[in-house]
User: Which sequence fits this backbone?
């Protein structure tokens, strides 16, 4: 199924979560940084002063870090059932957008096959206006999958390098998961061997692509299983210390 959600930059650092903004169709969910070049530059600076800690962790975003609100928010926003939405939306527009074949304005025009206007709260609006309202709705709907934020914080406390790895059309056009070339561009950009990367995704087809280029792949099911899988690979997670608690050394 083609996703209609706004996407984060395909390769961005994963810092401590910060509030997101709805400034473009590709607005990031709370945990994501919006700068590829700055995160890569920071990694280079750190590596010059101390040995790089491996493995590097690459995370899918939707239904791996945050819940994908596609199935509830979008049909409700357009006052349609999911069946009506799937039947009326353009079958390839979003994938063309992710591959950089069309821009945001073209996506707005092609969003639905018939170029319809929408009735939002009793007012007819053009698709472009509706999409601007939709992205605000989507950003507000993002929430962490249970337990994942604790894992990200634990990895960060142990100084693991983490990046969000998701389909995004700005940095590298005409490629998207599960194209093996997409994974190879990521490791080349990060200057890391594929075998030193752990890729985490909820879709097995994307995991298989990661394995095909030499990465370690973990199929995300839930946070508890992910924690065990990472531990089995020797990845150390600092226990989360909540406010008011004291960590025993």
Assistant:
């Amino acid at each position: 199924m083609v996703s209609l959600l706004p996407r984060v930059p395909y390769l961005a650092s994963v810092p401590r979560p910060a509030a997101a903004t709805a400034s473009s169709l590709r607005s990031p969910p709370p945990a994501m940084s919006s700068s590829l070049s700055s995160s890569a530059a920071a990694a280079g600076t750190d590596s010059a002063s101390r040995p790089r800690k491996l493995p590097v962790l690459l995370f899918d975003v939707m239904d791996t870090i945050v819940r994908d609100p596609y199935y509830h928010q979008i049909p409700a926003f357009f006052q349609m059932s999911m069946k009506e939405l799937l039947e009326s939306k353009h079958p390839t527009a979003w994938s063309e957008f992710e591959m950089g074949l069309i821009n945001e304005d073209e996506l707005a025009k092609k969003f639905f096959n018939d170029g319809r206007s929408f009735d939002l709260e009793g007012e007819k609006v053009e698709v472009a206006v509706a999409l601007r309202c939709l992205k605000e709705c989507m950003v507000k709907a993002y929430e962490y999958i249970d337990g994942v934020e604790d894992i990200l914080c634990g990895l960060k406390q142990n100084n693991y390098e983490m990046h969000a790895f998701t389909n995004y059309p700005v940095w590298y056009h005409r490629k998207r998961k599960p194209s093996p070339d997409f994974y190879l561009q990521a490791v080349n950009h990060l200057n890391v061997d594929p075998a030193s990367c752990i890729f985490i995704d909820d879709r097995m087809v994307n995991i298989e692509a990661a394995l095909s280029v030499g990465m370690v792949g973990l199929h995300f099911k839930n946070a508890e299983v992910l924690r065990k899988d990472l531990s089995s690979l020797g990845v150390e997670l600092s226990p989360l210390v909540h406010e008011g608690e004291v960590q025993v050394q």
In short: The two ends are 48 Å apart (CA to CA). The CA atoms of residues 212 and 218 lie 13 Å apart.
